[in-house]
């Protein structure tokens, strides 16, 4: 969209690919914030419609769809840690069950407990 009054020169719609303190990357191009018209920048992954001024600076940013929620870094790290511990414990139990008969009778009970532990909500 181009207007003759010089206020809005173009409109771009797409998913925010990257965000930094100066602007956002949408449709493969960086769109920078004007020091004369500051705008709030959306999160990466949000679908937006941007209005650009004649010089290509962001005039406004309308969020059409919020960024999809993703697992936070801390939660992801915790899940990775839990899975590593689960793998180590199951390996240990497997080796112990070969050497000690009484361990074999507990394998399924422990497997159920471990499964419940790994599937529980991520609470600290």
Structure description:
Residues 1-6 have low confidence and may be disordered. The chain is built from 3 helices and 5 strands, in the order E-E-E-E-E-H-H-H. Helix 1 packs antiparallel against helix 3 (107-119). A 5-stranded antiparallel β-sheet has the order 3-2-1-4-5, with no helix packed on it. It has helices at 73-99, 101-104, 107-119, and strands spanning 10-20, 23-26, 29-32, 47-52, 58-65.
In short:
The chain has helices at 73-99, 101-104, 107-119; strands spanning 10-20, 23-26, 29-32, 47-52, 58-65. The protein is α+β, with helices and mostly antiparallel strands. A 5-stranded antiparallel sheet has the order 3-2-1-4-5, with no helix packed on it.
Content of β-strand: 25-35%
CATH fold-type name of the largest domain: OB fold (Dihydrolipoamide Acetyltransferase, E2P)
Structural class: alpha+beta
Q: Main sheet: which strands, in order across?
A: 3-2-1-4-5
Please trace the helix and strand order, writing H or E for each element. Answer: EEEEEHHH
Layout of secondary structure:
Layout: E1 10-20, E2 23-26, E3 29-32, E4 47-52, E5 58-65, H1 73-99, H2 101-104, H3 107-119
Please supply descriptive tags for the structure shown above:
single chain, 124 residues, alpha+beta, OB fold (Dihydrolipoamide Acetyltransferase, E2P), five-stranded antiparallel beta sheet, 5 strands, 27% strand
């Amino acid at each position: 969209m181009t207007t003759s009054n010089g206020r809005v020169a173009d409109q771009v719609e797409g998913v925010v690919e990257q965000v930094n303190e100066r602007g956002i990357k949408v449709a493969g191009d960086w769109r920078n914030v004007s020091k004369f018209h500051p705008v709030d920048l959306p999160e990466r992954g949000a679908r937006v419609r941007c209005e650009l001024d004649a010089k290509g600076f962001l005039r406004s940013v309308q969020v059409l769809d919020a960024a999809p929620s993703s697992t936070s870094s801390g939660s992801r790290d915790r899940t990775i840690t839990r899975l590593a511990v689960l793998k180590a414990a199951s390996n240990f139990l497997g080796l112990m069950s070969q050497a000690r008969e009484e361990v074999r009778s507990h394998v399924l009970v422990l497997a159920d407990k471990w499964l419940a532990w790994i599937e529980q909500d991520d609470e600290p």
